[in-house]
Amino acid sequence: MKKQLLSLCLSALLCNMIPAVSYASSDIALSDTAASGIAITNRAKSGIETTNAAPILPLSTLQKLQWQPISTHDTQTIILESTSQQLNDGHIQGAVATFALPANQGSLEITLNSLIKDKQVYSPNVLVFDEQLHPAAFYPSHYFRYQQPGIMSTDRLEGVLKLTPALGQQRIYLLIYTTRSDLQASTQMVDPAKAYAKGVGNSVPDIPDPIARHTETGTLTLKMQSESNAGNILIGQVFSSPAPKPVTIGSTQVSTSPIRTTPTDAPQSAAPVVKPVLNDTERYFNDAIKRAINNGDVDKALKLLDEAERLGSPTARETFIKVIKNKK
User: Where is the composition biased (Polar residues) (predicted)?
Assistant: First the structure.
């Protein structure tokens, strides 16, 4: 079992590979479809067939978009309206949001919310591109789940994206859009009276829940922070290899829970220069990586590798690969 795990880790670091994927939850699914895009066909609870696919967008189209830079530990509120950037290509329809994210500051955790207002909501899909605008990860609309309001939050669709940009990149890109099939769907909310009764332990009233209609416009909030978890989606290529296919994040089945139903280059701020680590620090990380692998703790070794490279170590990856090879 350990040999199989070590082989898997080694293959994730060598060439001729698609971006590495961390299985943060059991419903993450990969696609082996051709470069024409990822196509996953699902049949919703209503019996109507829907298709969730990573769209194929021409490079010329992507280059025309205005990518808004965003910094780590930053929160953006985006109001999508008729005057916002529009994209009507294939299944994509309506206003879109586009972001340029820093790719030289370690792993990123991005929380995207689409707020429900007046029983209307923008149902987001997210396509992530590497620095060369190659599609690397795809989050279909059903990945963003309905969340009930809290003390400091309102009804919303929410999803968390965990990304690790490959070394050598300055930025990666996020395209947020909705589709024609999303616009034919709706989101079932929870009536406030039900939520209150459940919260205080009273009998839940038998009343219908409100429905939020999906629209081409809406309000998004995007919060980004750097984080050291090595189990993220790798964006871009570590080594030279054929153009990768985007990875689809989320279940291959549309959620059938009662809370969601389906009826039918912008300027980038200068990044801090990472200085090479001191010899003693580099030796410490290399020795720690060796011990972790020899003890069978590959996850710890990966985290040490990630931290060492964030500090500027030029030999940590070489050490990791060499020890993994020797263990095979």
Answer: 249-267
